[in-house]
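Hi D.,

Good news: the full-assembly prediction came through. Inputs first.
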Amino acid sequence: MTPTLERAELRRVRMRLKSPFMTSFGVEQDRECLILCLHADGLSGWGECVAGAWPGYSYETTATAWHVLVEFFLPQVLGKPLPAPAELSSRLAAYRGHPMARAALEMCLWDLAGKSSNQSLQDMLGGEQKAVPVGVSIGIQESPKDLVAVAAAYIEEGYQRLKLKVKPGRDVQDVAAVRDRFPDQVLQIDANSAYTLEQQEVFLQLDEFDLLLIEQPLAEDDLVDHSRLQELLKTPLCLDESILSARHARQALEIDACRIVNIKPARVGGISEAVRIHNECGQHGAPVWCGGMLESGIGRASNLALASLPGFTLAGDISATDRYYDQDVTAERFKLNPDSTIDVPQGPGLGIEIDEETLDRFTLLGTEIRG
Ligand code: OSB
Ligand code: MG
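Then the structure:
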């Protein structure tokens, strides 16, 4: 008999990053997120909502996610038979949008499904590699010289792929400085939608640095101009913000708006849709990689399992715990192996143990909801 989903605990959490992370949409020193825990049948399932304190990367924030989870999403599942992760989308079919809030709830369901069947998330998804290739995403620094120093330190730590954040005015010179110092380094860049097609000259220059890919140069709702830009470049474009579903991925690949897709389960409403995007890209022969949102150990465990699927042929934005945090909310700290990989958790569900004391210390606000 299917157990009942009895109770949810939702927290708003603040985690201090080791160094500020600057992108084209802002700078972050204290990362906020929501942590959700669902209880069913004596088991706890954990999930992380990566919406931030302000609507910079997407329209979702910790406050909007809290609102839709408490008022709409959780009441559809609490006090009812525990849904399988794949059933969540039909339970929430009446509601639009808010993929990060959905994904957090789905992550809890995956953790519970794995714990009740004694299977790891990796096994449930059909991933095989025991460790996955990873890189590091480097925020915009004070100067190109500082950027070179930060890049050098990560290379020294063993990261074999670097991603540089860029924005208008901090692009060609920054990339040139790193390329000049590290001629053979695998490098990619991410603009987080900061440009328009009128600024194509910048990309024609960036096209000369032998970049692996250029991530999300233009507006998130603009596949057409991405396709026009791709036509001008030899470097493959990769979309992040623009791809919210497998349908978007298919359409983007069909019109050559990108040749590579960054898959973040949080951006697309959860792992189920992330797997559909992975499969769609596979049919088009397009490589995918797993993006990151500065996750705690909870989201990191989930991303590692997803990134072990066979189509994830490029290194993910899944760095070691110590790239982000001195202290994390999981007992596990994820370490970089010498070959620039991180091990995929093998325990049931997400395969992590929560450090309750640290989690309590990081919690700004908590609530409990019963069915
Ligand atoms: O666009 O990929 C992005 C972090 C926050 C919001 C958006 C992005 C990022 C990153 C960091 O690039 C990736 C990571 O978690 O290491
Ligand atoms: Mg990105």
